[in-house]
Design goal:
Nucleotidyltransferase, domain 5; ATPase_NBD; five-stranded mixed beta sheet; ROK; alpha/beta; 309 residues; 2 domains; 23% strand; ROK family protein
Length: 309
Amino acid sequence: MRVGLDVGGSKTDAVAVAPDGAILARVRRATGWGPDAVTQTIVEAVAELAAAAGAAPGDAVSIGIGTPGQVVDGATVTHAVNLGVERLDLAAAITPVFGVPVRVENDVKAAARGAYALHGGDGTVAYLNLGTGVAAGFVRDGRLWRGARGTAGEVGHISIDPAGPLCRCGQRGCIEVFAGGGAIAERWGRGGALPVRDVFDAADAGDAEATGLRAGLAFGVAAAVRLLVLTVDVDAVVLGGGVSALGDRMLSLVVAELEAGAVASAFVRSLALAERVELLPAGSPAAALGAALIGSDAVPVEQEAVAHG
């Protein structure tokens, strides 16, 4: 049994994964605030998960943890502001409790690994996370590709319209200012629990401002898809994150934007961009599953000794 956890700002999603990749059990619980509470959340989630799988926590062979923020050496998370954590060595905190290898990874990269497995587990896949911000992760032949300094896939702050809205990074017209849930909510400025969905509902009702924001989202996501394909030539771009919960309401607009952009260019048409983009299935535990797979990478492989003669 491999255990994976997606530790988010409001909830923690945990799965137990069998050797063949099947999910044996899944639990969710609220995430505590601050280093001690986050650690306790993980410990309790693992115990609850093991019980749901009919096992003991110590039966796990590995634990993988996906978390916001920057991750150092597969063990320590830093600058996880959504968790109230400035620096926390999760591997050191969790390993003594269960006595199994623990590996920590950034949540988007963990989700990329999970999305790759859910996609079919072959070729090269880019996972585009459309949440409060926008970022991507790459997986090729089952392995994450981080780049020279670990920043591969940070497409959210690539400017696609120098005259566009001001982004929090100081540039204008970044992909994130068009397609990030936080930026859309800020520009909408009308509150609500699900502001991006509210924008789509208002656009359906004919609101001009909402229609513009919805079109901007499609423009931003389509631009990100083009960038990911043109720079890495991935087999597929899988869309996930909170904004992707809009499902076909969003995907149909992105596909239309991609098709419109290919009308004047035979080269762009040859890329078949619209055919390479897909949605992560609703409710998929991609980040927790990916964390479980990444966690198992830390388990030493036993070599069989073969005697000859």
